[in-house]
Design a protein that fits this description.
Layout lengths: L2 H15 L21 H15 L5 H5 L4 H14 L2
């Protein structure tokens, strides 16, 4: 799966979980940039991402995710290894 495809799906997930259809993500977007992206919704986002992409992150992988770009990279790596 290409990064562009991941980014589009990720954007949809964020809009759905955060209930904001107008949310526009950028690669460098962090939780401090988005209203509602708090610790509870971060967990909800991770669960939704894992379900959507049929992957599972370890605790150590989650610690490395600090912006949308790092999420995309982690998803891309997980999808590549799950083939």
């Amino acid at each position: 799966m290409k990064q562009e495809e991941i980014f589009e799906r990720l954007s949809e997930i964020f809009r759905d979980v955060l209930d904001n259809e107008h949310l526009v993500l950028q690669a460098d977007t962090t939780s401090t940039d988005v209203d509602g992206w708090d610790s509870v919704n971060h967990i909800n986002l991770i669960v939704a991402i894992e379900e959507a992409f049929r992957i599972q992150f370890s605790s150590s992988e989650l610690e490395k995710m600090f912006d949308v770009r790092s999420l995309i990279t982690a998803i891309e790596e997980k999808c590549a290894t799950s083939r």
